[in-house]
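Recall from the previous chapter that SMILES is a line notation for molecules. Here it describes pyridoxal-5'-phosphate.
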Amino acid sequence: MPDDIEQKINQWIRPVIRQLSAYHVPDPGNMIKLDAMENPYGWPEDLKREWLSLLHDAPLNRYPDPGARELSGHLRDTMGIPDTAGVILGNGSDEIIQMILLALAHPEHVVLAPAPTFVMYHMITKFCGMHYVSVPLKDDFQLDSVAMLTAIEAHRPAVVFLAYPNNPTGNLFDEETIIKIIEASPGLVVVDEAYAPFSDATFMDLLGSFDNLLVMRTVSKQGLAGLRLGLLAGAVEWINEIDKLRLPYNINVLTQLSAGFALQHMDMLDEQAQRIKDDRQTLIQQLAQLPGISVYPSAANFILLRTAAGKASDLFCQLKGRGVLIKNLDSDGALKDCLRVTIGTTEENQLFLQAFRQALEK
Ligand SMILES: *Cc1c(COP(=O)(O)O)cnc(C)c1O
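With both inputs in hand, we obtain:
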């Protein structure tokens, strides 16, 4: 880099931003893509045609409805959001995490979450110049109730994030422990239910019981990742404050129309989720029989597994060489020797399994 640019960058770009590395997304090329928790199933032709005819008349010359009212109504119905709760939509739940943290941003405010968990909580906390405290999960990836409550008492966090089910571990945390955390927290508790379509548990029904509880959802893992649409539900008073951080028209015309259309075909999306759940059970059983592999329970559309010591990165590369892209989580700490594989189509899962068996035999 020329010296004068470097000097200006050092002068003006905030140090916390200089220290971050950009969120890296690998190029899958033609590989079987089992790294990003996407739904592998598309739509039948007749449904695509119906959708395209709707888009044909989309008023692209106009700004979208700023409140996305019609879409919000559909989302409230399909996600069972209590009538009394307020709702904000975001350009993915990532944008909602950003709105929450911008609303709370203050150099003395703490964001608390267990570890390992979804990486965006940490990244966005850093963007916002706040302090991030992580509390290790137990060996079985359950919340450490005592450590969480002690950390809440010590740090008085502005917000606690709990992914339910958790990414990348795949499990649901103990409900009673979460309730204790909500009761003990001086600030907000955001329960991030990105994987709700694949689990039978939710905190949505408890929104009326706790005034510091917010529940976040997304349509990404359900099969609409390309639309970028997430939502936050909770007490109207909190929602009104956070909504001030939302940029106008953040949900574009095409997303409003397409998501509204897709939600009218929830039966198809639910069927796809059911197939993914059935295949998850099959794959867990098959993986558990492989030598040196331990498999963690999953309530999500992915499986976390642990390989024999020191083997994970090599297995990941071998799979890549065989045309299957999964996620390598191997690093020092709790995820040492761990890999994460998204449930694909029934056929993709079997191709992955075959490639994995071959890699293990080498
Ligand atoms: C994937 C994921 C999200 C991000 O969802 P988007 O709506 O696609 O931004 C949020 N939380 C968790 C825990 C996730 O795994």
